[in-house]
Specification:
Elements: H1 7-19, E1 24-28, H2 37-49, E2 51-52, E3 55-56, E4 59-64, H3 69-77, E5 83-85, H4 92-105
Parallel strand pairs: 1-4, 4-5
Antiparallel strand pairs: 2-3
Helix pairs in contact: 2-3
């Protein structure tokens, strides 16, 4: 199951990661109308601003759907490291056969 963390949950997870010595982070966004470049940049700022003791995130990378040019400028201004674009394509006949089965039995198609 996927979940969008609240700001408080995000800060808590960041503190835990920093406590384990992590310095780099990859944030992953699915496709959703509320996931704008501005919202992603806001989350990136939270990640950079959250510090725990001597720990801090020094590089935030992004994995998300393609943006327009202004969106990429927003991400660059937020100070991200790398923007990794996911581009999904589907073979519709196979997807139609696999998805209901996978959801119902929590298995992968063809297993």
């Amino acid at each position: 199951m996927r979940k969008t963390l609240s700001d408080e949950e995000l800060r808590s997870e960041l503190v835990a990661l920093e406590g384990q010595g992590h310095k780099r982070l990859i944030l992953v966004w699915g496709e959703h109308p509320s996931y704008s470049a501005e919202e992603m940049a806001r989350i990136v700022h939270i990640a950079y601003a959250t510090k725990s003791g001597k720990g801090e995130i020094r590089r935030v990378n992004i994995n998300a759907a393609p943006l327009d040019v202004e969106g990429y400028r927003t991400m660059k201004a937020a100070g991200i490291g790398t923007y990794q674009v996911f581009q999904e394509t589907y073979h519709h006949p196979t997807t139609g056969q696999c998805i209901p089965r996978a959801r119902a039995r929590a298995t992968t198609c063809g297993a």
